[in-house]
Specification:
By secondary structure, the chain is α/β, with parallel strands linked by helices. It has 2 domains: 2-183 and 369-382, Rossmann fold (3-Layer(aba) Sandwich), CATH 3.40.50; 187-367, 3-Layer(aba) Sandwich (Rossmann fold), CATH 3.40.50. It has 16 helices and 12 strands. It has helices at residues 14-24, 46-51, 71-83, 85-95, 109-118, 135-147, 160-166, 195-201, 224-232, 251-260, 276-281, 297-304, 317-320, 335-347, 350-367, 370-382; strands at 2-7, 32-37, 56-58, 100-103, 122-127, 153-157, 209-214, 240-245, 267-271, 285-288, 309-312, 328-330. The strands form 2 sheets. A 6-stranded parallel sheet has the order 3-2-1-4-5-6, sandwiched between helices. Strands 9-8-7-10-11-12 form a 6-stranded parallel sheet, with helices on both faces. It is globular and about 65 Å long. 39% of the residues are buried.
């Protein structure tokens, strides 16, 4: 059975890594997985899919701007081209032999669903966050779900918050089996690292408290809050540095703000890094200041590393972290609460922080191993 995963790009990201791990699980390895990207980019994650012999195709919503055409005309042509996406996708699907289309994006969702159904494919849409759908998209989903069987168009979300936020109008939002949380391959996190050696390698003093985060540098992740936090945070006898691993559209802008505010020794944007477990091993605290969120792999990775964690209450984060038990939660976007959350974490004893990390690790080991999640997706695929 062939499954086509539709995604924006194959730039490094949690969803991309999650799909990669799913394709390699024992439960799903027998399926023939393929990737369809809807945006043109550098795709620095593409080689990992090629290494597991997963074909990658491109069908962009829009073509890249052309400098030899006047801007307004080029913009109009690109818009018209985007309107043809549904037809182009339908032609692509008719010519191919995939049975299941598994979409991981909401962009042009109506086109994706119509093209899939008209080409006699089954379609599964996984909601990886709190989406705000246009009214016409909501009406379209309600119409389609009313007239076709549930197995022809299945909707899944990675968290209860994502499901209810995106489909608050629908009975689908009340069905627990429509929630399949993000899974993680725990094996890479079993390796033990020497924290002091890793810090020495990265020229970090052993007495510095390192707070870290990993993710795309975009507005949704809320990393600008960390700059404001370090600009106003006053702590005696504590040297703190925040390390943020990842790339994205706002990285350069936030780096410029760090420079202007002269916080280079307190907030560092590292760019993409290859060895996430090693990076997490040198941290004292993990932080996820998201403004909106699903059930992010980045926090699962921090939990797998046994770190004490601070998160906002955005989306599925409040389903991952139990306040005071396996981490600390603050109100999303509230710098004052964020500051208090950090102070509270810093005031915990080493034993209390270690216990938080152990509880977090135990939770995902029980519920979020990639094989357990793959088993749930296998069930959904076999219903098609």
């Amino acid at each position: 059975m062939k499954i086509l995963h539709i995604i924006g790009t194959l730039n490094t990201g949690g969803v991309q890594n999650f799909i990669l791990e799913l394709c390699q699980t024992q439960n799903l390895r027998k399926f023939n997985h393929q990737i369809l990207c809807t945006m043109l980019s550098d795709d620095n994650f593409k080689y990992k899919f090629q290494n597991i012999k997963t074909p990658v195709f491109y069908l962009p919503f829009k073509y890249l701007p052309k400098n030899n055409i006047p801007f307004r005309i080029d913009k109009l042509f690109r818009f018209i081209y985007s309107l043809t996406f549904g037809i182009r996708l339908w032609i692509f699907l008719v010519k191919s032999d995939q049975k299941i289309i598994h979409s991981h994006i909401d962009t042009q969702l109506m086109s994706q669903v119509l093209a899939s159904l008209l080409s006699r494919k089954y379609i599964i849409w996984t909601i990886h966050g709190e989406y705000i759908l246009k009214n016409r998209t909501i009406l379209f989903i309600r119409f389609i779900k009313y007239f076709i069987s549930d197995n022809k168009f299945q909707i899944i979300a990675d968290s209860d918050s994502a499901l209810k936020s995106t489909l608050q109008f629908s009975e689908q939002a009340q069905i627990k089996s429509n929630i399949i949380q993000t899974g993680i391959n725990l094996e890479p996190f079993d390796k033990k690292y020497d924290k002091s050696l890793i810090r020495i390698k990265n020229n970090i003093d052993l007495d510095t408290i390192i707070i870290g985060s990993t993710g795309r540098i975009v507005w949704e992740k809320g990393y600008g809050q960390l700059i404001t936090l370090m600009e106003t945070l006053k702590l005696k006898d504590k040297k703190i540095r925040i390390l943020i691993a990842g790339d994205g559209s706002l990285r350069q802008k936030l780096m410029d703000i760090v420079t202007i505010k002269q916080l280079e020794d307190k907030v560092v944007f590292l760019g993409n890094i290859e060895n996430i477990p090693e990076f997490l091993s040198m941290l004292d605290i993990y932080i996820q200041p998201s403004m909106t969120e699903g059930y992010p792999l980045s926090v699962l990775e921090a939990m797998a590393s046994g770190l004490p964690i601070i998160v906002s209450n955005a989306g599925g984060l409040k389903e991952m972290i139990v306040h005071g038990e396996n981490g600390i939660i603050y109100k999303s976007g509230d710098i004052k609460e964020l500051k208090e959350a950090l102070k509270k974490m810093l005031n915990l004893s080493p034993n209390e922080k270690n216990m938080m990390g152990k509880i977090a690790l135990n939770k995902i080991s029980t519920n979020n191993s990639i094989e357990k999640v793959a088993e749930k997706y296998k069930t959904k695929y076999l219903q098609c």
